[in-house]
Amino acid sequence: MIDKTSSIPIFRQIYENLIRDMQTGQLKKGDLLPGTRSLALDLNVSRNSVDRAYLQLEIEGYILSKPNVGFVVLDTFSEIKLTALPNLRKPQTEISDSIIDFKYGGNGFSTFPKAKWQQYTLEVLSSETDPFLDNKGNINLRIAIAEYLYRHRGVRASYEQIVVTNGYVYSLEIISNLLKARNPKSTIAMEDPGFPVTRNTLLKNDIYSKPLSYYNGNLELPENPKHNLQAVIVTPSHHFPTGSVMRVSMRQTLLTWARKHSIYIIEDDYDSEFRYKGDPIPSLQSMDESGNVIYFGTFSKPLSSTLRMSYLILPPSLLPIYETRYDGYTSSVSTLQQSIFEKFLVNQDYEKHIRKMRNVYKKKHDLIRTLCKNKFGECVSIHGTNGGLFVLLEVHKNTTSEILVKEAWKKGVKIYPTSDFYADGRKHPTVFMGFTDVSLEDIEKGIELLYQAWFVESKKPTL
Fold it and tell me: What pTM was estimated for this model as a whole?
């Protein structure tokens, strides 16, 4: 049973529950664990949480990943009494009745364009929809995506280069497979700090390379990269998690470096629609003249995290490998969902929704920024402003992000540590705050509670 209100991360709860099932004999040696996707659906959690739990179990020797089979239990704990397993759950401290959760990427159905979606669903169900999907997805949808991206991101690609996928991890696994088809020893580097899901996915696919240091818009590139380094993942328009923009000079340097060493650049353009000051940042793909950029995008963040629809754009050099590697495959996104979204995109309802949500999120973004400045003053620095769906709050105290998170939790506010974003797990006094699913009222209340937790409580005299 997963408790989403618990301070224990979901992946850790899954990990503990599976060990307990092995201990009690419900899972025995040789048993096959559920697939990560099906278990995520059963538990109503993200697949990333299940992936991370399975990865940890495999590292510790509880299970083994067998190609074309799945995850198999390696040992049995049926003779060990339940009491022998230490209670890994820490006692809960009392918190307020209502949790204010500054989670990231939780965008549910509260702002979903239900009326239009329902209209197009009925239209698709009433029409003669071709049930067949090729290995890249609905052709009409891919044409619409290509036209939309050219208008709004300057991306130049034909529909033949676009692959519709069911999420970022799936897109990254496709790229991993294509690069390994070229060179079985391929590796991919990422930014440090960077997205933990990226690191975990690369590790799981045995394609992880030493990360590249990123600071203040600049990426540290090796002058003589190793032969096996085939690609670098970057977030140039809104770096995750610092929120900075990659400098133009750095973009040009990166493109030149990639061309010189025949290395692909994987551009993760995950939230480019949400820019609150100035014009949108040009995509790196629009600057590429050599076909070195692989472009990632998503429709889940603007619409809903429950809509698992993303896409990737392959450079021409990878298309033959894709056709060979995925010959006989069909798209991972349902025919119905793709046909509905095609109408949504062609009729420009998606763009209308983006404009609406940009205003909604700008109000939240601006409110967090104003309240933090007014309430915390010089005690904090705010990073990641003017765009995106999160902010990074650096607290000027002699503490760690984990302690800040724990103190906030006691006041009924859920924020997130940043140690996972760094390859070395460094413990900066910095916390991560998303705002898609939190109301304006709760933002105001949450900032006040954070002030009490970090600056008022700490001043109380000890008895």
Answer: 0.77
